[in-house]
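As a warm-up, study this chain.
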Amino acid sequence: MSAASMQLMSVEITRLLLGLLIALFHRPIADYILEHERSLVIMFRQRGLAFPATPSTETVRNVYFFIGIFVAVFEIVRIWVTVH
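Now compare it with the structure written out below.
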């Protein structure tokens, strides 16, 4: 393997690890984002702007879990295609 392909493979593996980390820590990530989203919605409503309610905590947690799994599976497929 050339140096360029090794660097490309390290980028793919880093993305795979990022997807796995998102899936592993989806609850704290989702809770953090949702807390800030709720405070933004409250701030905008106090200023007279109508915003829809934020999604439920479980919905946001599921979304972040699926994002992490999607990124991981996508990168596994890319690595497999690159190797074969």
